[in-house]
């Protein structure tokens, strides 16, 4: 467990997963074991979305790759690169075509192993500052590598009148639940305000869009994404790829509490 502290803010990170962001005794992050989701955050990379209907196959310029829902990054382990009192940097490294065991197999998937035909390095860093928690992602690899990126944090909800303000519209939790497993698309949006007993601004750089998901009223996932995967059929997920270059490998998510 990695612990960070800055004034009244504390952060706990378990194997790269943000399991607590507490400000003056108020917890913003969904807690494992509570109804809703078994995790508190994860990354979706190098693809976002389900692949079962496409036979777990995703088209790339180097041939088809076997990927389960949301990619294979979550099956790799983070290594701590650097740690200070208020910051930490972690990394995952992958060698092209290395077979990775799929934790969803056999209960939730028929794909026993996953692979991606490109080398990559994926860095995730957390830094506490006076006004909030700054999270950044850096992707390094072969120029032209296709990829999507989604960040999938879950926020704890305490109030009865929770609202999410995005693109000038206020969205209630019942509306998100009604959409179901596909998640609600919030296109062309870089900042969302989550209003609860305490409010939080989730602002981003590099992603461009969000999607919202929950099946319960005690948590909500507010997910920055580069591509909404339900805009295409599963066999056409490749249409949503970025292609890695010097200008598009850096992404940021800032969590800023508001009184």
Automatic annotation (TrEMBL):
MF annotations from Gene Ontology: carbohydrate binding; isomerase activity
Alphabetical UniProt keywords: Calcium
Cofactor: Ca(2+)
InterPro entries registered for this protein in UniProt: Aldose_1/G6P_1-epimerase, Gal_mutarotase_sf_dom, GH-type_carb-bd
Protein's GO biological process: carbohydrate metabolic process
Source taxon at top rank: Bacteria
Pfam family, one: Aldose_epim
Oligomer status and interactors: Monomer.
Protein name: Aldose 1-epimerase
Lineage: Bacteria, Pseudomonadati, Bacteroidota, Flavobacteriia, Flavobacteriales
């Amino acid at each position: 467990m990695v612990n960070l502290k800055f004034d009244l803010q504390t952060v706990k990170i378990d194997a790269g997963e943000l399991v607590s962001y507490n400000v003056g005794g108020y917890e913003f992050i969904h807690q494992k074991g509570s109804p809703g989701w078994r995790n508190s955050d994860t990354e979706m990379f190098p693809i976002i979305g389900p692949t079962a209907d496409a036979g777990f196959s995703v088209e790339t310029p180097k041939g088809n790759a076997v990927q389960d829902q949301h990619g294979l990054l979550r099956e790799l382990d983070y290594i701590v690169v650097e740690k200070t009192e208020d910051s930490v940097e972690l990394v995952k490294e992958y060698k092209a075509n290395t077979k990775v065991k799929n934790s969803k197999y056999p209960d939730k998937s028929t794909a026993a192993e996953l692979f991606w035909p490109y080398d990559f390095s994926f860095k995730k860093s957390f830094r506490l500052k006076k006004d909030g928690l700054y999270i950044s992602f850096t992707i390094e690899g072969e120029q032209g590598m296709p990829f999507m990126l989604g960040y999938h944090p879950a926020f704890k909800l305490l109030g009865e009148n929770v609202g999410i303000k995005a693109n000038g519209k206020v969205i209630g939790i019942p509306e998100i639940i009604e959409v179901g497993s596909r998640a609600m698309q919030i296109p062309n949006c870089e900042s969302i305000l989550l209003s609860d007993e305490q409010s939080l601004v989730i602002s981003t750089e590099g992603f461009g869009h969000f999607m919202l998901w929950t099946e319960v009223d005690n948590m909500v996932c507010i997910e920055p994404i580069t591509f909404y995967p339900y805009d295409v059929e599963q066999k056409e997920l490749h249409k949503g790829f970025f292609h890695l270059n010097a200008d598009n490998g850096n992404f940021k998510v800032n969590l800023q509490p508001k009184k």
